[in-house]
């Protein structure tokens, strides 16, 4: 099933069995709404150097779409490194996956990365949750077992947490971050706003978040967890205004 992860050695064995083909990069599209940033940072430069020396050792994974094109599932950083090196082709393994199965595999593959921003994990968990809900009870193309069969009797967030080594509650907290306005979410990524206060602030209306952002910028300070919880309560009671935020 798409959301189940094989042990690392088993994955390598399985990939060796699959046919690797070389495809022009111009025919390989990034996954729509890919939640993981591809940054031209120090790690990317290290990857560029490695590919320049040894080539692309591990093929990327993609699924076939219409008009002889492919949608990238795993390997967005390798693709970018090749583009920086002006390499025109990529070794790829094509898997017969639905859009939802591709999302689940894409999220699971990228969650193995060492450095993941809170916003990346937040949108990744949200994408996987929505994909799992859409595929619940639907058989995969090569398996008679429903793709999300293990959802029966469980919350989707709990299933995601089991596969990711986190609690269902923590998965739900991350997904709440997607309700933050972009500027506040960026502050979470930068470590200016702590994770738990950010979760509480996500319950504020967008206009209230804008007022909070203005206060943060003018006063050069961010709310503590206790302050964030108080603002959430005031918002729920329709009593949160600029003066209360300033207090």
Question: What is the share of helical residues?
Answer: 40-55%
Mean of pLDDT? 86
Mind summarizing the main beta sheet? 5 strands, mixed
**Protein structure class:** alpha/beta
Order of helices and strands: HEEHEEHEHHEEHHHHHHH
- Are there runs of 5+ residues with pLDDT below 50, and where? 1-5, 139-153
Multimerization status: single chain
Distance between the termini: 52 Å
Radius of gyration: 21 Å
Total beta strand runs: 7
Shape: elongated
Descriptive account of the structure:
The chain is of the alpha/beta class and 247 residues long. Mean pLDDT is 86; it is low at 1-5 and 139-153. The longest helix has 18 residues, at 118-135. The strands form two sheets. Strands 1-5-3-4-2 form a five-stranded mixed beta sheet. Strands 6-7 form a two-stranded antiparallel sheet. It has twelve helices and seven strands.
Element layout with pairings:
Blueprint: H1 8-17, E1 20-24, E2 28-29, H2 42-54, E3 60-64, E4 70-74, H3 76-84, E5 89-95, H4 99-110, H5 118-135, E6 139-140, E7 143-146, H6 156-164, H7 168-176, H8 182-189, H9 195-201, H10 206-219, H11 225-236, H12 242-246
Parallel strand pairs: 2-4, 3-5
Antiparallel strand pairs: 1-5, 3-4, 6-7
């Amino acid at each position: 099933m798409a959301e189940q992860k094989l042990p690392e050695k088993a994955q390598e064995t399985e990939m060796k069995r699959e046919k690797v083909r070389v495809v022009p990069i111009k025919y390989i599209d990034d996954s729509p709404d890919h939640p993981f940033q591809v940054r031209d940072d120090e790690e990317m430069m290290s990857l560029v150097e490695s590919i320049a020396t040894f080539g692309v050792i591990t093929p990327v994974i993609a699924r076939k779409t219409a008009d002889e094109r492919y949608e990238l599932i795993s390997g967005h950083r390798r693709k970018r490194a090749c583009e920086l090196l002006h390499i025109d082709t990529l070794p790829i393994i094509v898997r017969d996956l639905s859009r939802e199965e591709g999302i689940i595999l894409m999220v699971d593959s990228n969650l193995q990365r060492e450095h993941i921003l809170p916003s990346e994990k937040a949108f990744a968990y949200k994408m996987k949750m929505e994909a799992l809900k859409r595929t619940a009870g639907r058989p995969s193309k090569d398996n008679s077992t429903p793709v999300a069969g293990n959802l029966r009797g469980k919350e989707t967030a709990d299933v995601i947490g089991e596969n990711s080594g986190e609690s269902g509650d923590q998965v739900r907290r991350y997904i709440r971050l997607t309700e933050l306005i972009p500027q506040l979410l960026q502050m979470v990524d930068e470590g200016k706003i702590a994770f738990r206060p950010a979760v509480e602030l996500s319950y504020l209306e967008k206009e209230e978040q804008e007022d909070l952002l203005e206060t943060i910028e003018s006063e050069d300070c961010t709310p503590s967890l206790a302050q964030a919880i108080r603002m959430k309560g005031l918002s729920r009671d329709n009593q949160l205004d600029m003066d209360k935020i300033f207090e």
